[in-house]
Design a protein that fits this description.
single chain, 298 residues, alpha/beta, 11 helices, 40% helix, globular
Length: 298
């Protein structure tokens, strides 16, 4: 078993620990604050998911940006940065530029990195750190931590229930039609759009797979043209009315776990990425052209 597969399987326990840690942590965004959430790659997609969850919880306006595209002229009460390594150049540059202007919080897996000094407050989730280059458990644990800090969110399960769903997602066989497909389109609405983006990225990173990701209601406005026999439309969360019939009409395969927590369904996509990588003879722990952290030259 690859290290990535091992780390994927530990996510239910990591989420439970994150939920407990969030209740004791001082420094999470307060209700009513105007917040921006940032990161790069996978961390940006988790930022997108958290921003939508926070607004759904009624806690205040929340935006999400990749760190390289952060609108420095906008006024926020707090900026939250997600960085597994704590060394990503764009994140560190942003946090240093915000110093003294706005309160900042960073989530990281490594307490011995520059982010500790770059942010005003740091939540260290070192139990969710990874050996694999490909992010799986740290990203979802960071989201579980932030999600738990929101309290109840209408229509969204508590993190403890999400962990129960993830235990099933870790063990149940993946559908043959999904494993054997040639193309996958991931779809989500609200906070699950960030998960759809992350699923597509995971498949590209680990397996070099042909994937796309869109807001679910945008699927019929063009992206459906790519679907057909041997291709999958994978929906995170509730299935939009009529979409199943549209996928069937064009001969595609629909994958949807509407009753499962969407983070648990992301675990399935992570497992699929590893399975496809291994089938191709790739090393999912060390994907082509990638490093654990992007550190740019001065």
């Amino acid at each position: 078993m690859s290290r990535t597969a091992t780390e994927i399987a530990t996510q239910p326990a990591c989420w439970r620990r994150a939920a407990g840690a969030a209740t004791a942590f001082e420094g999470l965004p307060e209700p009513g604050e105007r917040v921006a959430v940032t990161g790069c790659g996978t961390s940006w997609f988790m930022a997108i998911a958290y921003a939508a969850l926070r607004e759904a919880a009624g806690q205040g306006e929340t935006d999400a940006f990749p760190s390289s595209e952060f609108p420095a002229s906008r006024a926020y009460d707090r900026v939250v940065a997600i960085t597994r390594s704590g060394t990503t150049t764009e994140v560190l540059d942003l946090l240093r530029g915000l110093r003294g202007r706005v309160g900042t919080l960073a989530l990281t897996a490594d307490p011995n990195t520059p982010v500790m000094a770059a942010a005003d407050r740091v939540a260290v989730l070192d139990w969710a750190d990874e050996e694999s280059v490909v992010q799986t458990r740290f990203a979802t644990t960071a989201l579980a931590f932030l999600r738990a800090g929101l309290g109840p969110v209408p229509g969204v399960k508590p993190v403890a229930e999400a962990a129960v769903d993830a235990e099933l997602a870790v063990t149940e066989p993946l559908p043959e039609a999904v494993v054997g497909a040639e193309q996958w389109t991931f779809l989500g609405r609200g906070w699950t759009y960030g998960l759809a983006l992350e699923a597509g990225l995971k498949m590209r990173e680990a397996a070099g797979a042909w994937t796309e990701a869109y807001p679910a209601m945008e699927y019929r406005h063009g992206p459906i043209s790519i679907t057909g026999p041997g291709r999958v439309a994978w929906v995170f969360g509730a299935l939009p009315q009529g979409l199943a019939g549209e996928v069937a009409r064009v001969g595609g395969t629909l994958h949807a776990h509407a009753t499962a927590d969407p983070m648990a369904d992301l675990v399935r996509a992570q497992r699929l990425a590893v399975a496809l990588a291994e089938a191709k003879g790739y090393d999912p722990d060390r994907p082509r052209n990638l490093t654990r952290s992007v550190i740019l030259s001065p």
